[in-house]
Write a structure and sequence with these properties.
DNA-binding, 8-stranded antiparallel beta sheet, globular, 8 strands
Amino acid sequence: KMLALAVAGAPENVNKRNSVSDLKPQGTPIKLTKASGCEKGVGSDRSHYFMDNQQRLGEQFFNQPCISLAKALLGKVLTRRCADGTELRGKIIETEAYPGAEDKASHSAGGKRTKRNTAMFMKAGTIYVYPIYGIYLCMNVSSEGEGAAVLLRALEPLQGLPVMRELRAARRKEGACRVKDKDLCNGPSKLCQALDVSRYFDRRDLASDPDMWLENDPNANSEEPYNIVSATRIGIESHGEWAKKPWRFYLCGHPCVSVVNKVAERQSLSGNEINDFSTSDAV
DNA sequence: GGTGCGATCGCCT
DNA sequence: GGCGATCGCACCG
């Protein structure tokens, strides 16, 4: 606790003003109140919410169908305990479901098991980390169902932002501008960098691992619920019909969404749960 | 604000 | 040997 506090309580306030402007709610009705945004709570202000023993989500939570888990993960807090005791926290705000064998866009398409995708076939809650484009990593969590997993695509950073910023800056050019709060974890590989998720986590159990786990957001009750947008998944255009499945889920209007899909948002708001449109992501 | 492009390498065919 | 469940930067408007 003390370590976490020490880290979180550090120099963050210095940049408060910047962060505030970084996180403007846009578009749709979201409830990004000051208390729930990245700006204020982040770090020092927010960390006290996590001082009491937060209960980690256990096996049962992960043991649900893929699409259902992808939605259930939204709003949960991913916590990473670093080697020095520093705790980094981010709220999951965007996921993608890869339900398994029939899904041609999945690494487990056709039920194929390989060395790489082994974690997808392990018990629900198993972490699947794989390298992509030679230089990046993506993190998934396996769900119920053979070869099914959920890709984590974006987090709202809550605690340990200075550390996250350092971890992210390591990859960037010297002299590049400071990463905005909302950009620290707004992409699948960015969140791996920001939370120091390495390939070492592949095949580990998110329900019992000492270095990474999930919590409920202790602040959730004071916030109005977000609308969940379901949109087409990102980066799988070459997979024909499967590319059109609306299996990407995100909190509507949240500033940390990696790619906004306005068509999907309109459909979600009009109360249509099935967004089987074929257009690619609008800007 | 948006778009285009190159980086870079493990994995699978 | 070819190809990504991506990212950051340069460039344009």
